[in-house]
Design goal:
alpha/beta; 8 helices; ROK family protein; globular
Length: 251
């Protein structure tokens, strides 16, 4: 028999599709996470079939909200960009596509936005009001902007143009690896990036996520910012938890 839980979160990534029931009171998984590899050809139909497997595995009751992340801009359920998924996603009404398979309403959200919401309510930015900016440093730079607990969706701050370059092409963790940068060299680029963001938004807090955040103590102390900057706490659970919370709040 399934454990009682508040919502189901599903996080669609470039390599894996992960899901878990979420206890929103605790901001924690109510059951063990299930992960299935993302199809090599990650078209909407192929990904939808895997998401259906995840939902079937947990067999949520009809009234349980389902939140699903995508590594893309999503407005009113429609996919507007495609990163680490097939370009055929652009223009797809993902909310309608996913809802049709399990025959229930789903809530679609950008993956960085979901992570930001999770960190705001359960992680490194818990109970922090004002302007909170979460950035995920990975293949690109994802971002979430939260003002007094309210998400401003699809900010795409990794796509800011700085010194004639798209910011994430020089400051993402992938750029550090690709160019063989030392931590000190990479920190100089992060300094430029975060300075630009804080000059635009005057945030009260930066939260830094992505896999590299596990090594935050090696590069965050090298940054000289007026804004407090801290590593994310929820790691790869954030997308699932945030998606579940957003789905519950929208239902």
């Amino acid at each position: 028999m399934s454990t009682k839980y508040d919502a189901l979160g599903i996080d669609i990534g470039g390599s894996g599709i992960k899901g878990a029931p979420v206890d929103l009171g605790k901001g924690a998984f109510a059951e063990d996470r299930l992960r299935i590899a993302t199809p090599d050809l990650s078209t909407p139909e192929a990904v939808c079939a895997v998401v259906e497997q995840v939902i079937d595995h947990f067999s949520p009751k009809k009234q349980v909200p389902i939140g699903i992340t995508l590594p893309a801009v999503v407005t009113h359920g429609v996919v507007r960009t495609a990163a680490n998924i097939d370009s055929s996603w652009i223009g797809v009404d993902a909310a309608a596509l996913f809802a049709d398979r399990p025959d229930r309403e789903v809530h679609m959200v950008n993956d960085a936005d979901a992570a930001g919401v999770a960190e705001r309510y359960y992680g490194a930015a818990k109970d922090r009001d004002g302007v909170v900016v979460l950035t995920t440093l990975g293949t690109g730079i994802g971002s979430a902007l939260i003002i007094d607990g309210q998400l401003v969706p699809n900010t795409e701050l990794g796509h800011l143009e700085i010194d004639g370059h798209v910011a994430e092409s020089r400051a993402a963790e992938s750029a550090r690896a690709r160019e063989g940068l030392t931590i000190e060299q990479w920190a100089e680029r992060l300094q430029t990036y975060y300075t630009r963001v804080e000059d635009l938004l005057w945030p009260d807090l930066f939260v830094v996520g992505g896999g590299i955040s596990k090594q935050a103590d090696t590069f965050l102390p090298l940054l000289d910012l007026r804004t407090e900057i801290v590593p994310a706490r929820l790691k790869n659970k954030a997308g699932i938890i945030g998606a579940a919370r957003l789905a519950a709040k929208s239902s």
